[in-house]
Amino acid sequence: MTTNSRRHTVDSTDHPAISAGQGRAARVAADITVALAPVVMFAVPVVLVRAGVISDAFLFLNIVSLFVSGLVAAYAHMGWHARPHDGDLLSARTLTGRHTVDLARLTKVGRLEVPGQTRTDDRLILSDAHGVRLILNNLRGGDDTVDALVRNALLKRPPGAGVVISDRAAERLDLQAEVARPHGRFRRGRKIREGLIGFLPLLSVFVVAPVAIGLLALALTLADVI
Questions:
Q1: Is residue 146 within 8 Å of residue 137, measured between CB atoms?
Q2: Residues 129, 190, 65, 67, CA torsion sign
Q3: How far apart are the C-alpha atoms of 201 and 103, rounded to whole Å?
Q4: I need a surface site. Which of 14, 39, 123, 221 has the fewest CB within 10 A?
Protein backbone atom coordinates (compact mmCIF):
# COMPACT_ATOMS: atom_id res chain seq x y z
CA MET A 1 0.00 0.00 0.00
CA THR A 2 1.39 3.40 -0.96
CA THR A 3 0.45 6.94 -0.11
CA ASN A 4 0.25 9.42 -2.99
CA SER A 5 1.27 13.07 -2.92
CA ARG A 6 -0.82 16.23 -3.30
CA ARG A 7 -4.57 15.56 -3.08
CA HIS A 8 -4.17 11.81 -3.58
CA THR A 9 -5.88 9.23 -1.44
CA VAL A 10 -4.36 5.98 -0.19
CA ASP A 11 -3.69 3.49 -2.98
CA SER A 12 -5.13 0.00 -2.37
CA THR A 13 -7.24 -2.61 -4.06
CA ASP A 14 -10.50 -1.27 -2.63
CA HIS A 15 -9.46 2.39 -2.83
CA PRO A 16 -7.51 3.10 -6.01
CA ALA A 17 -5.37 6.21 -6.28
CA ILE A 18 -7.57 9.29 -6.66
CA SER A 19 -6.23 12.62 -7.86
CA ALA A 20 -7.51 15.89 -9.30
CA GLY A 21 -7.55 15.86 -13.10
CA GLN A 22 -8.10 12.10 -13.34
CA GLY A 23 -10.01 11.44 -16.58
CA ARG A 24 -8.84 14.54 -18.47
CA ALA A 25 -7.17 12.49 -21.21
CA ALA A 26 -10.30 10.36 -21.57
CA ARG A 27 -12.40 13.49 -21.99
CA VAL A 28 -10.11 14.81 -24.71
CA ALA A 29 -10.20 11.45 -26.50
CA ALA A 30 -13.99 11.32 -26.26
CA ASP A 31 -14.35 14.89 -27.56
CA ILE A 32 -12.09 14.09 -30.52
CA THR A 33 -14.13 10.95 -31.23
CA VAL A 34 -17.36 12.94 -31.12
CA ALA A 35 -15.97 15.46 -33.62
CA LEU A 36 -14.29 12.99 -35.97
CA ALA A 37 -16.79 10.11 -36.02
CA PRO A 38 -19.15 11.73 -38.59
CA VAL A 39 -16.17 12.83 -40.71
CA VAL A 40 -14.54 9.39 -40.71
CA MET A 41 -17.84 7.57 -41.30
CA PHE A 42 -18.44 9.88 -44.24
CA ALA A 43 -15.03 10.10 -45.90
CA VAL A 44 -13.65 6.56 -45.50
CA PRO A 45 -16.62 4.71 -47.10
CA VAL A 46 -16.71 7.25 -49.95
CA VAL A 47 -13.04 6.66 -50.76
CA LEU A 48 -13.27 2.87 -50.47
CA VAL A 49 -16.48 2.65 -52.51
CA ARG A 50 -14.92 4.74 -55.29
CA ALA A 51 -11.93 2.38 -55.22
CA GLY A 52 -14.24 -0.62 -55.48
CA VAL A 53 -12.98 -2.11 -52.22
CA ILE A 54 -16.30 -2.22 -50.33
CA SER A 55 -19.99 -2.26 -51.14
CA ASP A 56 -21.84 1.02 -51.47
CA ALA A 57 -24.09 -0.19 -48.64
CA PHE A 58 -21.42 1.12 -46.24
CA LEU A 59 -22.37 4.64 -47.27
CA PHE A 60 -25.50 4.25 -45.19
CA LEU A 61 -23.32 4.57 -42.09
CA ASN A 62 -23.94 8.29 -42.51
CA ILE A 63 -27.49 7.71 -41.27
CA VAL A 64 -26.20 6.78 -37.81
CA SER A 65 -22.94 8.74 -37.60
CA LEU A 66 -24.44 11.70 -35.70
CA PHE A 67 -26.24 9.37 -33.30
CA VAL A 68 -22.92 7.60 -32.65
CA SER A 69 -21.34 10.94 -31.77
CA GLY A 70 -24.20 11.73 -29.42
CA LEU A 71 -23.90 8.38 -27.65
CA VAL A 72 -20.15 8.81 -27.19
CA ALA A 73 -20.65 12.35 -25.86
CA ALA A 74 -23.03 11.06 -23.18
CA TYR A 75 -21.87 7.59 -22.24
CA ALA A 76 -18.10 8.21 -22.30
CA HIS A 77 -18.53 10.36 -19.15
CA MET A 78 -21.46 8.54 -17.52
CA GLY A 79 -20.38 7.61 -14.01
CA TRP A 80 -21.38 4.99 -11.46
CA HIS A 81 -20.10 3.96 -8.00
CA ALA A 82 -19.43 7.62 -7.26
CA ARG A 83 -17.88 8.46 -3.90
CA PRO A 84 -16.43 11.63 -2.33
CA HIS A 85 -12.77 11.84 -1.29
CA ASP A 86 -10.60 14.22 0.68
CA GLY A 87 -9.90 17.57 -0.91
CA ASP A 88 -13.39 18.10 -2.36
CA LEU A 89 -12.84 15.35 -4.92
CA LEU A 90 -15.70 13.28 -6.33
CA SER A 91 -14.67 10.16 -8.21
CA ALA A 92 -16.62 7.61 -10.23
CA ARG A 93 -16.07 4.79 -12.69
CA THR A 94 -16.92 5.39 -16.34
CA LEU A 95 -16.65 3.43 -19.58
CA THR A 96 -13.42 5.32 -20.28
CA GLY A 97 -11.86 4.76 -16.87
CA ARG A 98 -12.06 6.55 -13.54
CA HIS A 99 -13.02 10.23 -13.66
CA THR A 100 -12.45 12.57 -10.73
CA VAL A 101 -13.90 16.08 -10.58
CA ASP A 102 -12.71 18.75 -8.17
CA LEU A 103 -15.89 20.14 -6.62
CA ALA A 104 -13.98 23.17 -5.34
CA ARG A 105 -13.01 24.08 -8.90
CA LEU A 106 -16.18 23.38 -10.86
CA THR A 107 -16.47 25.54 -13.97
CA LYS A 108 -19.75 24.30 -15.40
CA VAL A 109 -22.79 22.44 -14.09
CA GLY A 110 -25.43 21.13 -16.47
CA ARG A 111 -28.23 18.61 -16.36
CA LEU A 112 -28.98 15.64 -18.60
CA GLU A 113 -32.62 14.54 -18.69
CA VAL A 114 -33.65 11.62 -20.89
CA PRO A 115 -37.39 10.82 -20.66
CA GLY A 116 -38.31 7.14 -20.46
CA GLN A 117 -41.50 5.13 -20.36
CA THR A 118 -41.57 4.87 -16.57
CA ARG A 119 -39.20 7.60 -15.38
CA THR A 120 -36.74 10.23 -16.56
CA ASP A 121 -33.02 9.51 -16.36
CA ASP A 122 -31.93 12.67 -14.57
CA ARG A 123 -28.21 13.38 -14.01
CA LEU A 124 -25.90 16.30 -13.36
CA ILE A 125 -23.10 17.13 -15.80
CA LEU A 126 -20.05 18.34 -13.88
CA SER A 127 -16.98 19.96 -15.48
CA ASP A 128 -14.01 21.33 -13.55
CA ALA A 129 -10.97 23.51 -14.13
CA HIS A 130 -8.78 20.43 -14.70
CA GLY A 131 -10.73 19.58 -17.86
CA VAL A 132 -12.60 16.60 -16.42
CA ARG A 133 -16.27 15.92 -17.13
CA LEU A 134 -18.50 13.54 -15.18
CA ILE A 135 -22.19 12.75 -15.64
CA LEU A 136 -23.84 11.12 -12.63
CA ASN A 137 -26.68 11.09 -10.13
CA ASN A 138 -26.31 8.72 -7.18
CA LEU A 139 -23.49 8.08 -4.75
CA ARG A 140 -22.19 4.57 -4.26
CA GLY A 141 -23.94 2.32 -1.75
CA GLY A 142 -27.33 3.98 -1.61
CA ASP A 143 -29.93 6.21 -3.15
CA ASP A 144 -28.29 9.46 -2.00
CA THR A 145 -27.75 11.82 -4.91
CA VAL A 146 -24.70 14.02 -5.42
CA ASP A 147 -26.87 17.15 -5.19
CA ALA A 148 -25.94 18.12 -1.61
CA LEU A 149 -22.21 17.75 -2.28
CA VAL A 150 -22.37 19.82 -5.46
CA ARG A 151 -24.62 22.49 -3.96
CA ASN A 152 -22.47 22.95 -0.87
CA ALA A 153 -19.31 23.16 -2.97
CA LEU A 154 -20.87 25.77 -5.26
CA LEU A 155 -22.05 27.92 -2.35
CA LYS A 156 -18.48 27.99 -1.02
CA ARG A 157 -17.16 29.52 -4.23
CA PRO A 158 -15.99 33.13 -3.92
CA PRO A 159 -17.62 36.08 -5.69
CA GLY A 160 -16.46 36.33 -9.28
CA ALA A 161 -15.90 32.57 -9.68
CA GLY A 162 -18.17 32.63 -12.74
CA VAL A 163 -19.36 29.01 -12.59
CA VAL A 164 -21.75 28.42 -15.49
CA ILE A 165 -24.95 26.75 -14.29
CA SER A 166 -27.75 25.80 -16.65
CA ASP A 167 -31.30 26.80 -15.81
CA ARG A 168 -32.38 23.18 -15.28
CA ALA A 169 -29.34 22.38 -13.09
CA ALA A 170 -30.02 25.49 -10.96
CA GLU A 171 -33.60 24.31 -10.50
CA ARG A 172 -32.53 20.84 -9.40
CA LEU A 173 -29.95 22.26 -6.96
CA ASP A 174 -32.29 25.01 -5.70
CA LEU A 175 -29.86 27.72 -6.80
CA GLN A 176 -32.13 29.89 -8.95
CA ALA A 177 -31.95 32.81 -6.51
CA GLU A 178 -28.17 32.54 -6.19
CA VAL A 179 -27.68 32.42 -9.95
CA ALA A 180 -29.79 35.56 -10.33
CA ARG A 181 -27.69 37.56 -7.86
CA PRO A 182 -25.07 39.96 -9.32
CA HIS A 183 -22.11 38.72 -7.26
CA GLY A 184 -20.49 36.93 -10.22
CA ARG A 185 -20.21 33.63 -8.37
CA PHE A 186 -22.47 31.99 -10.94
CA ARG A 187 -23.36 32.69 -14.56
CA ARG A 188 -26.50 31.58 -16.35
CA GLY A 189 -26.03 28.73 -18.78
CA ARG A 190 -28.38 27.03 -21.22
CA LYS A 191 -32.07 27.55 -20.54
CA ILE A 192 -34.65 24.90 -21.48
CA ARG A 193 -38.30 25.07 -20.49
CA GLU A 194 -39.51 22.14 -18.41
CA GLY A 195 -42.35 21.43 -20.85
CA LEU A 196 -39.86 20.77 -23.64
CA ILE A 197 -37.91 18.04 -21.83
CA GLY A 198 -40.34 15.28 -22.82
CA PHE A 199 -40.17 16.34 -26.46
CA LEU A 200 -36.37 16.67 -26.71
CA PRO A 201 -35.78 13.14 -28.11
CA LEU A 202 -38.40 13.73 -30.80
CA LEU A 203 -37.09 17.23 -31.55
CA SER A 204 -33.54 15.92 -31.83
CA VAL A 205 -34.67 13.38 -34.40
CA PHE A 206 -36.20 16.13 -36.51
CA VAL A 207 -32.90 18.03 -36.33
CA VAL A 208 -30.49 15.13 -36.78
CA ALA A 209 -32.45 13.18 -39.42
CA PRO A 210 -32.32 15.86 -42.17
CA VAL A 211 -28.58 16.34 -41.60
CA ALA A 212 -27.98 12.58 -41.72
CA ILE A 213 -29.99 12.25 -44.93
CA GLY A 214 -28.05 15.15 -46.41
CA LEU A 215 -24.73 13.47 -45.56
CA LEU A 216 -25.95 10.22 -47.12
CA ALA A 217 -27.02 11.99 -50.30
CA LEU A 218 -23.66 13.76 -50.55
CA ALA A 219 -21.78 10.52 -49.93
CA LEU A 220 -23.77 8.71 -52.63
CA THR A 221 -23.02 11.53 -55.05
CA LEU A 222 -19.29 11.71 -54.31
CA ALA A 223 -18.99 7.92 -54.55
CA ASP A 224 -20.60 8.04 -58.02
CA VAL A 225 -23.44 5.80 -56.86
CA ILE A 226 -26.07 8.26 -58.08
A1: yes
A2: positive
A3: 30
A4: 14
What sign for the dihedral angle of Cα 199, 200, 206, 209?
Answer: negative
If DSSP codes are grouped into helix, strand and coil, which group holds residue 65? helix
Average pLDDT of span 183-206: 76
Cα distance between residue 167 and residue 182, in whole Å:
16
3-state secondary structure of 176: helix
Cα–Cα distances (Å) from 3 to 10, 11, 102, in that order, read 5, 6, 19
Q: Which range, of 93-97, 115-119, 162-166, 189-193, averages the lowest pLDDT?
A: 115-119
| Total residue count of the chain as it appears in this document | 226
- Name 92's bridge partners: 99
What would the mean pLDDT of 26-40 be, rounded to a whole number? 94
Q: What does the buried/exposed string (b/e) look like for 122-135 if buried means 16 or more CB atoms within 10 Å of the residue's CB?
A: ebbbbbbebebbbb
Residue 59 has pLDDT above 50, yes or no: yes
DSSP 5: S
Identify the band that residue 12 occupies on the pLDDT scale cut at 50, 70 and 90.
Answer: very low
End-to-end CA distance of the chain: 64
φ/ψ (deg, to 5) at 178: -65, -40
If you write DSSP's letter for every residue of 9-45 in order, what string do you get? -EE-SSS----TTTTHHHHHHHHHHHHHHHHHHHHHH
